[in-house]
Design brief:
By secondary structure, the protein is an all-alpha fold. It has seven helices and no strands.
């Protein structure tokens, strides 16, 4: 297993911090906001999709060398999920922070059906619950945008 692979799936040292998922999501929040600001939400979506695909394959490889089903140091799944959560926030700082809070809530507490996705085997189980939490967050953001007109 290469150092580059480990760096990518763990975001370097971030994956080894206590609360690593929150730190990784916050980094994705900042980068996602910049991408939204400079390029727009479509490119945030493309980045989320790309990170999901690459993250899946790299996580599958990482799991071959791990004795854990969902290693806590693997945080690329949180990055992908938070990027999906950022797709419809535009350049609103408020909606960006709300997307972060909703995504973290869904990722930490894993309400149904998110909790079922983490039962999938291998990299599917690692990535799917976070990606789906990000997609569910999109619906909350759209609802909030239409309700409050942010």
């Amino acid at each position: 297993m290469t150092k580059t692979l480990i760096f990518f799936v763990t975001l370097g040292p971030i994956g080894y911090f206590k609360g690593s998922g929150t730190y990784a999501s916050f980094i994705a929040l900042i980068i996602g906001y910049i991408v939204n600001f400079v390029l727009g939400g479509f490119y945030t979506f493309l980045l989320a999709f790309l990170i999901t695909l690459v993250g899946f394959f790299l996580t599958a490889h990482y799991l071959k060398f791990s004795n854990k089903k969902d290693p806590p140091e693997v945080v690329i799944d949180e990055v992908a999920g938070q990027f999906f959560a950022m797709c419809f926030v535009g350049i609103s700082i408020e909606l960006s922070l709300i997307s972060f809070l909703i995504f973290r809530f869904l990722d930490i507490f894993k309400p149904y059906p998110i909790n079922k996705l983490e039962l999938l085997p291998g990299a599917f189980g690692v990535m799917a619950d976070d990606v789906f939490a990000g997609i569910i967050t999109i619906f909350f953001i759209i609802f909030i945008k239409n309700l409050i007109l942010i």
